[in-house]
Each structure stands twice: as structure tokens, then as C-alpha cells.
């Protein structure tokens, strides 16, 4: 059995099960457990872990397979699949749903994901904790409209295999400041308010509305998300499964963490959001 080992450094997420339990146990009780798809951030847990947990804890915990879609891929890049038999997380090894992967890979094309990237890996301990019986499909999708159709294919393949599928779309929002070369509103609290109330808000409104073209435009032209392909995959999945509109569960920025002591205001920060899609009633 070939297993994919941890590639991110210890600062990204806890290394031992006890730390993970302490971080997640409050969400275990609070989670709604009925969402079929969520959007979650992928920064280190110190910055965005609480928001990611808010999303992933809402997923239907009776799922057979959890599809975690990452990004950081430009338009024209192939979809990337983990080709191992399983992945190692601090909460335990997660088996890959190889049958689902092979059918989907044949439908979408794509290549093996041999790269170090945080967008999928950062979600693995939470998926293992909240969805202990689920196998995994590790996939990264590019920032292009074809990823919306890929989301539909995920839903159709799951139904054909009679799998109970849940999906995590992994993306952060606006990367603002000198660290990211994006400072259209200068620096300081005024810039943070613009990110929160304008740039991130416009992107989230497009996601809530389920408009893939607008999501892609705002992510790419307005630099409002780093992994729009993952979000497009979630929208396609939601449409194919007849789910309701996206529901915003939580929102914040890394500045909320960085400026807690009030001693200095960060000149660079990132937006994070949790969103869920539920069955229509």
C-alpha cells in the first residue's frame, strides 16, 4: 500500500491527535452534520482553522467519500489527482477511493499530484476527524469554467456508484498587502474595510448566487480568491445535486488574529470564509 506522507511543516496544523481533538471537539458538538458541500479556507490552522472547522463540521458525517478539491492552478492546467492508495494525517490514515478516482480521471483527464501544496493537505485532519468512515478523493482543479463541469461530473459519478458524497472546496479569499503585491486601497484599517466589505463581499455574493462566470471573473480580475477552480467545482456539484444556494457560515481575516493585541496593524492579510450547501427543502 503506497501512502502519501505529510508534506507541510508542523506550523501549518497540529502534529498529534490530542492537539487536533482539543482544537476540534467544540465543533463536533456544534456541527449541523447535513451539508453536502462546503467552502473552507486553507491557511494554517492558527489563522483560519476555526473557520475551516466551522465548514467541515457541517458535512453529512455518514458520507462514504469526501472529495477535497484544492486549487492554486491557473487556467489551462490539468486537474491533479493524488495517485497513492491513502494519505497519512495525524488523525489517522485515510484510504483513497480508487474506484471513484479512476472513473473520474478517465472522464476529466488529468495528472498525478506530486507537488507540495496546502490546499488539500490542510483539510485532511479535519476530514478524518469529522468523517471517520469516509474514503478520500484528492483533486485540484484549475481556474477555468471547465471546473464547473468537473463538479457536475463528480456528482454524477457519485450517484452512478451509489456513493454518499460530500465535497470540500478549499480556497482563501483576497490576499492583500505588500506581501502579495496587491494594494489598490493603500494600507491600514481603510484597506481592511475595503477587503471585507467590497472585494471579499462581492466574491461571496457571487458564490452564494451560484454564478460560475461571475465567481471566476471576481476571483481572477478582482483577485478575490486564490483557488477559484475549487469553488467552481463546488458550484457544479451543487447544481447537479439540486442543492440550495450557498449559505455563509463564518467570515474573517488574518488581520483579526494578527491585530488581537492592538500593538500593530498588519500591512498584509488574507480573507477567509466558510460556506455550506444543503439539500433543498
Tell me which CATH architecture applies here: 3-Layer(aba) Sandwich
User: Which regions contain 5 or more consecutive residues with pLDDT less than 50?
Assistant: none
Based on CA atoms alone, the radius of gyration comes out at: 18 Å
Q: Globular, elongated, flat, extended or rod-shaped: what is the shape?
A: globular
Tell me the count of domains. 1
Helix and strand succession?
Answer: EHEHEEEEHEHHEHEEHHHEHE
- The CATH superfamily is known as LigB-like
Q: What CATH first level would be assigned? A: Alpha Beta
- The number of helical runs is 10
Question: Which terms summarize this structure?
Answer:
281 residues; Protocatechuate 4,5-dioxygenase, Chain B; 9-stranded mixed sheet; 10 helices; globular
Structure, described:
The chain is α/β, with parallel strands linked by helices and 281 residues long. It has a single domain (3-173, 226-278), classed as 3-Layer(aba) Sandwich (Protocatechuate 4,5-dioxygenase, Chain B). 40% of the residues lie in helices and 21% in strands. It has 10 helices and 12 strands. The strands form 2 sheets. Strands 2, 3, 4, 7, 8, 9, 10, 11 and 12 form a 9-stranded mixed beta sheet that branches. The longest helix has 21 residues, at 189-209. It is globular. The N and C termini lie far apart (42 Å). The relative contact order is 0.20. The mean pLDDT is 94.
Amino acid at each position: 500500500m503506497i501512502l502519501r506522507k505529510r508534506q507541510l511543516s508542523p506550523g501549518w496544523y497540529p502534529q498529534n491527535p490530542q492537539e487536533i481533538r482539543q482544537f476540534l471537539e467544540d465543533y463536533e458538538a456544534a456541527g449541523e452534520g447535513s451539508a453536502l458541500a462546503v467552502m473552507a479556507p486553507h491557511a494554517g490552522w492558527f489563522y483560519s482553522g476555526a473557520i475551516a472547522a466551522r465548514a467541515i463540521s457541517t458535512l453529512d458525517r455518514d458520507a462514504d467519500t469526501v472529495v477535497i478539491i484544492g486549487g492554486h492552478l491557473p487556467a489551462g492546467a490539468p486537474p491533479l489527482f493524488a495517485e497513492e492508495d491513502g494519505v497519512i494525517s495525524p488523525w489517522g490514515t485515510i484510504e483513497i477511493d480508487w474506484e471513484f478516482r479512476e472513473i473520474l480521471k478517465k472522464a476529466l483527464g488529468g495528472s498525478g499530484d506530486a507537488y507540495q501544496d496546502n490546499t488539500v493537505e490542510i483539510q485532511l485532519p479535519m476530514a478524518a476527524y469529522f468523517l471517520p468512515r469516509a474514503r478520500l478523493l484528492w483533486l485540484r482543479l484549475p481556474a477555468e469554467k471547465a471546473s464547473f463541469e468537473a463538479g457536475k461530473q463528480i456528482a454524477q459519478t457519485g450517484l452512478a456508484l451509489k456513493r454518499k458524497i460530500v465535497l470540500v472546496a478549499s480556497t482563501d479569499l483576497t490576499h492583500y498587502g505588500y506581501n502579495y503585491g496587491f494594494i489598490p486601497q493603500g494600507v491600514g484599517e481603510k484597506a481592511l474595510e475595503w477587503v471585507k466589505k467590497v472585494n471579499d463581499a462581492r466574491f461571496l455574493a457571487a458564490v452564494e448566487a451560484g454564478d460560475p462566470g461571475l465567481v471566476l471573473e471576481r476571483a481572477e480580475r478582482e483577485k478575490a480568491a486564490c483557488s477559484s477552480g475549487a469553488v467552481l467545482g463546488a458550484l457544479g456539484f451543487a447544481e447537479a445535486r439540486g442543492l440550495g444556494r450557498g449559505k455563509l457560515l463564518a467570515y474573517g481575516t488574518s488581520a483579526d488574529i494578527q491585530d488581537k493585541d492592538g500593538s500593530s496593524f498588519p500591512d498584509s492579510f488574507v480573507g477567509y470564509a466558510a460556506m455550506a450547501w444543503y439539500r433543498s427543502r
